[in-house]
Design goal:
The chain is built from 15 helices and 14 strands. By secondary structure, the protein is an alpha/beta fold. The chain folds into 2 domains: 187 residues, Rossmann fold, CATH 3.40.50.2000; 174 residues, Rossmann fold (3-Layer(aba) Sandwich). An 8-stranded mixed β-sheet has the order 3-4-2-1-5-6-7-8, with helices on both faces. A hairpin with a 2-residue loop joins β3 and β4. α1 crosses α15 and α8 packs across α13. The chain is globular.
Length: 378
């Protein structure tokens, strides 16, 4: 048997793109024995990765997840007796010392800048977000000092951890190019389309209200398809109505999502200017590019550095519905320019902005922990 790796999450689903489709599969392909523990009661082998439910119900309230849910998950992880534990949630950082108790190595994968992320949590009262952010910062920084490797998505997060004396690598949320090899990019279909799309989870801080308001004001000139979860108590407030030009799909399969991309004229990413939203380009921008779609994105530097550099879309003020409408309308009215933006984005993905050309960073970092590819722990 090879070196056993156990990925752990209390938040993410078993088919999470970053955790399962990218990291777990890359490590399994490199010869590691990989288990991924996530909420639920499932047990299956998918592509050489063992997917196990922790026993924690996925629908638990956040407060219960942060207490009993974390304990249940860590107990399930320890039962795996893994050589390396790879944790994906800030709330699990306080268990790093416990996971190392029997000589195991621990990798801390910082998907978000946790203190900044607190400020976009709707369930935390605004007046409490600053002190909660400070507490989260203190707890995380104290706990992460015990990790053997830190993985960050953004430069800002790398900067935050750089003085801890722990090896850090940056793994951006790039698209998996292989997922898009079979996509049918038909310029005629897109030129005739009035549909734009949004993929992934969305809430107010990610522009749910302004995005939907802009599209609704466009009437039958435009239709929006949301493929992902709306994190709001009343989604119909934004998408409902007899004559609504917004379709809320909820979670759909990756194959169904590709079909949405094929039928769309543009992809939207209109995050609001909250600190955590502004430090790195979201995965969806790279996916839109991989699908050959022009992008309408927020005019933050993190997004404009990609969209404007590769001339693959239009950047707008995400709080200005007029700018959002004008950008969408421009793409719908100028199919040749839109097709050129789409080609530019796809070319950038093929030439290096893809997971396949960066996955070696993860495998190489693991080799540093094990003393060689799939070797024994040092």
């Amino acid at each position: 048997m090879g070196t056993k790796v156990c990925h752990i999450s209390t938040v993410h689903k078993k088919n999470d793109i970053r955790i399962f489709h990218k990291e777990c599969k890359a490590l399994a392909a490199a010869g590691y024995d990989v288990v991924y523990i996530s909420p639920g009661n499932h047990l299956e082998n998918d592509g050489g990765v063992i997917l196990k439910g922790s026993g924690m119900p996925p629908g638990w309230h956040k407060a219960r997840r942060l207490t009993a849910g974390c304990r249940i998950t860590i107990k399930a992880a320890l039962a795996e007796d893994a050589d390396i534990y790879h944790i994906h949630d800030g709330e699990l950082s306080r268990f790093i010392k416990r996971l190392k108790k029997n000589g195991s190595k621990v990798v801390y994968d910082s998907h978000e800048h946790l203190p900044m992320q607190i400020f976009e949590k709707e369930w935390i009262p605004p007046m409490l977000r600053k002190p909660v952010s400070k507490i989260a910062d203190i707890v995380e920084m104290h706990s992460v000092r015990k990790a053997d490797l830190i993985i960050a998505v953004a430069d800002k997060t790398v900067e935050r951890f750089k003085d801890l004396g722990i090896k850090i690598i940056k793994l951006e949320n790039l698209a998996i190019l292989g997922e898009f090899e079979g996509i049918e990019i038909d310029p005629a279909v897109r030129a005739a389309s009035k549909k734009v799309c949004y993929s992934g989870t969305i809430w107010i801080e990610r522009g749910l209200d302004t995005m939907c308001a802009a599209v609704r004001e466009m009437g039958d000139r435009c239709f929006l398809e949301i493929a992902g979860r709306i994190d709001h108590g009343n989604p119909a407030k934004f998408t409902g109505g007899v004559d609504s030009n917004i379709r809320y799909r909820g979670y759909i399969s990756r194959n169904e999502l590709i079909k949405v991309y094929e039928a769309s004229a543009a992809g939207l990413c209109l995050f609001k200017p909250f600190p955590n939203n502004m430090i790195d380009p979201p995965t969806k921008i790279y996916e839109y590019m991989a699908a050959g779609l022009p992008v309408v994105a927020s005019n933050f530097k993190s997004m404009s550095d990609v969209v404007e550099k590769y001339e693959c879309g239009i950047c707008v003020d995400p709080l200005n519905t007029g700018e959002i409408k004008n950008a969408i309308q421009y793409i719908l009215d100028h199919p040749e320019q839109a097709a050129r933006m789409g080609r530019n984005g796809l070319e950038a993905i093929r030439n290096g902005l893809n997971w396949e050309m960066h996955s070696h960073l993860l495998v190489d970092a693991y080799s540093g922990l094990t003393g060689g590819e799939n070797g024994k722990l040092q």
